[in-house]
Amino acid sequence: MSTIQPLPDETPAAASGVPEVPADVLAELRSTWTPRPAPGSAGRAARHRLAEATRRLVEAVKLVDPEGDADALKSVADDVSDLAARISAMASLNDREPTLDDLQLHERSPFVGAANPLAPPMELVADGPVIRAHAVFGAAYEGPTGRVHGGYVCAAFDEVMGVAQSGAGALGMTAYLTVRLKRGTPLFERIDYEAEVTRVEGRKAWVEARSYADGVLVADAEGLFIRARAV
Fold first, then answer.
1. What EC number(s) are associated with this protein in UniProt (predicted)?
2. What is the dotted CATH code of the domain comprising 21-231?
3. If we measure between CA atoms, which residue out of 168, 163, 151, 152 comes closest to residue 124?
4. Closest CA to 193 of 171, 175, 178, 208
5. Is 214 left (phi over 0), alpha (psi -120 to 50) or beta?
6. Residue among 224, 187, 212, 199 at smallest CA distance from 62
7. pLDDT for position 231
8. What are phi and psi of 157, to 5 degrees?
9. Are the C-beta atoms of 155 and 111 separated by less than 8 Å?
10. I need a surface site. Which of 11, 14, 119, 205 has the fewest CB within 10 A?
């Protein structure tokens, strides 16, 4: 049985000002993150494959033994340098106006982006007003030995909570984010997240979140998101 506990619900939604947001509105607000659609073209599918291959490359480079075969390392470094030059010579997104597909966070985010080789990638799922997510952080995200760097821990919360703010019925920007590290977040293990809006006042939405490793709480967070003023 899972030991993950739901986020606290000490105040009824009406008293805390959290609105009842229709499911279709929530789906529209979250669509830039989730669900991740199938690639709409052969080129986009190939870029997703390239991003995944690059993730494996980064992981392998991080873990390769520098005291091993130096000549082999030099040869591989030359090959990777040549490959980077080939890719750089190809058509760039910077050379044209981005499309709506280009702008979606499920495409470009450093945490959930299928085309972003920096993304673990994280998987997001909507569960009513709650956003749940999970990710496995490899060696590239290491801070303390065997643990995820604290900066990545905080950034992962910002991503999950940024989606969860949709529970306020609108989206805004992060005003502040407080993360409490209860214990080290382990590498190479599935980390589960949950986040939801706990209070709304005008343009302000407060979000709380937690992360778990094998059902054990490793960190929690609270943040304030503020949507832009109407022009």
1. 3.1.2.-
2. 3.10.129.10
3. 163
4. 208
5. left
6. 187
7. 60
8. -60, -40
9. yes
10. 14
